[in-house]
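Question: Hello, beginner here. Any chance you could explain the protein record under this note? Any guidance would be welcome.
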Amino acid sequence: MRTMMVVALCAMAMAARANAAIKEVPVTYSDGEATMKGFVVYDDAVTAKRPGIVMVHEWWGITQHIHNEARNFAQQGYTAFIADMYGDAKTADNPKDASALSGSVMKNPAVMESRFNAAREQLAKQASVDPQRIGAVGYCFGGAVVINEARAGADLAAVAGFHASLGLNTPAPAPGTVKAKILILNGADDPFAKREQYAALKKDFDAAKVDYRIVEYPGAVHAFTNPEATELGKKFNLPLRYDAKADQEAKAEAAKFLAADLKK
């Protein structure tokens, strides 16, 4: 009888877990006069407050890839907030428009900071989030955003950039001003990440005594975590390619890194 009760209880627990969905809720917020449309993503089976992650999209805007990544982080026990860096959830379906949208943010550090902070504020006030444990993750363009915001002293515990662009448009940080630990996960053969950019980044971070690490995956190029990258690369003749091995290894590295600082 006792064995049957244990089996029944286990079955009930498994059924409850199966019925618990990852919730993805649209959030309309503002940055000054600009209307922003992001998403909060979390596991509603978890009742306790949990760490939060601001997620910044690729130059295409908020695509299915970033939704999938947010769901992965929600399954790991975070509340993810997909930031809208372009306003009105604008997206691009070609490199010309994507470049224009991303450039409008990257060329104006004040806009980049304001839009990132607006998203962080939305995340921090979610009922499921512990506002004292917030990090950020970015992809390509988004990687550049989160690295630059960390350089600028954003209130973040940990920052991870996947196939991050390395354009630095924030001033070199002074020692002690960078609060976040930083992890950069890039393809070793990514032609968009120049050796001189790595050198400049390392010089600034070393001088400012930043806790950072760079991991490069041999053979991987740009956008290696995005399953749609290979087709996009062929379509637009760009060095984009999904790499399942690098994707798996980078995500495992990021999971370990973020947990060490956000779940302690």
In short: The chain has one domain: 25-262. Residues 244-262 form the longest helix (19 residues). Strands lie at 22-31, 34-43, 50-56, 79-83, 129-139, 158-162, 181-187, 212-217.
